[in-house]
Every structure is written in structure tokens, then in C-alpha cells.
Amino acid sequence: MMARSLPCPIAMPDYLTAATLLDLARRADARAPGPCACTKTPLDGWQSQPLSLDESQLREIGTLLSEHDPEPTFAEYLPGKIDYWSADAPIAPRYFPYNRCGVWECTSCGRLYLRYTEGGGYFVDRRIRALRLALIEDVPL
Asked: What is the chain's mean pLDDT, rounded?
């Protein structure tokens, strides 16, 4: 009689603190200082994931979704007149949507991207934004 194997659990990506995210962003900026040719769509602000981005080039390196926070906040951190779509909107890891993001690296150019899935009543939208060191703010809730 053959032993029956149990399904292998899916490994969760490592949780990244704001300090770790800052460190990763510093290293990525040092590796990839010039413009990116991996996508034709600028990804400085949130965008629906463009078809021009070859998803097979991306590998997940961590998550900002804490396993210890089963219900992360939907509060946004948008000081002043900045809006969600702005290329200058701060990246605040404890706030929405960052607290639901995976951190992904382009294996071609070394740049880092934030990705999450926005879900509404009748749609699902995979969104992506380039991780920019200068915009990361570790703001308490």
C-alpha cells in the first residue's frame, strides 16, 4: 500500500517591516539608477497592471501584509492635496493599499514594485506601483 502524501502548504512570503522596505529600496536604487525599459507604461503612481509588463520577469520577495493583523486598515495616508493615483503620493506601509501589497522585483532590471489586487462588486483589478525610496514614510496608525 502506497503512503498518501498531504498537499504541500503554500509558503507565505516574508513580512517586510518599514525599515526592511527602506533597506530594500536603497539597494534597488543603487542597482538600477537609470530609466526602466521593462514596461512602456510609467509606474510612478498606481496603475492597473499593464499588458506590456512581462509578469514572468517579476518575483515576489516579500509582503507588507502582516500575518498578525487579520484585518488591516482601509485608512489611507494622503497628506495635503495628494490623491491615491498621484506619482508623489507617499508610500506608507501601515496604510491602505500598501498594507495589502506584495513587494516584487523585476529580474531583468532589479527595480522593485508594489502589487495588490483591488476588488469591487463586479471587478478585480491588479494594480502595480514602482517602489520609490524618497516616498516611503513609516507613519504610525
From this structure: 88
pLDDT tens across 28-57, in order? 988 876 667 788 888 999 999 999 889 999
CA dihedral 96, 48, 134, 21 (to 10 degrees): 60
- Residue 42's SS3 state is coil
In whole angstroms, give the CA distance from residue 24 to residue 22: 5
pTM score over 0.85: yes
Phi, psi (degrees; rounded to nearest 5) at 23: -65, -45
Q: What is the separation, in whole angstroms, between the first and last Cα of the chain?
A: 56
State the DSSP H helix or E strand holding residue 27, giving kind and residue range, or none if neither.
helix 18-31
Q: In whole angstroms, how far apart are CA 106 and each of 16, 38, 42, 57, 60?
A: 18, 8, 15, 5, 9
